[in-house]
Amino acid sequence: MGRYDFRPLRVYQTASQLFASERIKSVPSWHDVIGRVPPAQTLVRSQPLQHQERLRRPNIRKPSKLFQPQRIVYEEDSLRREFFGDHPWELARPRVVLENDGRDAERKDWSLVSQPDRPVDGEGVVQRQMFLLHGNPEKGQMPDPNMTPARAYDQARKEFYETRLQQDIERRVAKEEAMATGAYFGKSVLQIGMELEDKIFEEWKAWASAEVVQQEQKRAAMYTGVENEAAALPEEDSEAEAALGELEASVPNQGQEAFGGAVVRP
What CA–CA distance (Å, rounded) separates 232 from 218? Predict the structure, then answer.
């Protein structure tokens, strides 16, 4: 057969000959499909387009990664990387994990950063920046020729901040109005977090105090002396020592002379 096996390419002709010579009673179910849509005749995989910026060394005839696909890069990727790099906490906000179909410009007007059917988030800032840079030619909205990526980012970010501030004020006013009519709310997220933090701090404070006392006792046990012994005595022993000191002050220094007894020899 040689280097290549061509039998898969002749499977349709083989099945037709077997049916014509009555060696098989009926043609297979795939016979007509293969006849209408024959398999490809190319046996060698074609080389895909390579990166234009890739530098090839002249001493190598073919690249090491021959069939490496090209990298898919979109302009929005760099804009998202810049925005979420400056606002990492935006990634912690709840969001709907739904991919865009790339046709938002046909259904939404990104001349404003806020849309009626979606929350204001980082993706809205990216789309607003894309609108400032390229406009929407299909609707006759052309971009400013003097607009730069930095200016577009600053303008979209400013509109984003103003919209978020307006939403916070609206929520605050709505809460105050509800409380004025008798509604009550539970603890906020900040209050719950501060209580948990205070609880952990008090536990650590008690543990640290016990550790300090234990370290002082160990340090006092390593040395001998009046000061160290006094520091190492418990509270009851310290009270007893104070009582003995008061009693010694009331006893006279010179007592009665002793009579009798054995003569003390030098």
Answer: 9
What are the tokens at 20? 């014509």
Contacts of 252 (CB under 8 A, 6+ apart): none
What are the two backbone dihedrals, phi and then psi, of residue 221, each rounded to the nearest 5 degrees?
-75, -15
State how far Cα 103 lies from the chain centre: 29
Helical (H) or strand (E) element with 155: helix 149-180
Measured between alpha carbons, how far is 156 from 130 in angstroms, rounded to an integer?
Answer: 10
Residue whose C-alpha is closest to residue 134's, from 121, 157, 122, 152: 152
DSSP 197: H
DSSP letters spanning 25-38: SS--TTHHHHHHSP
Token duo for residue 135: 């406009």
User: Per-residue pLDDT for 122 more than 80?
Assistant: yes
| Residue 140 tokens, joined | 């006759």
> What is the Cα–Cα distance from 235 to 250, expressed in whole angstroms?
24
pLDDT at 169 over 90: yes
Question: Is the pLDDT confidence value at 152 over 80?
Answer: yes
Contact 90, 84 (CB under 8 A): yes
CA distances from 56 to 49, 52, 53, 64 (A): 14, 10, 9, 10
Across the range 29-33, mean pLDDT stands at 87
Contact (CB, 8 A) for 244 and 233: no
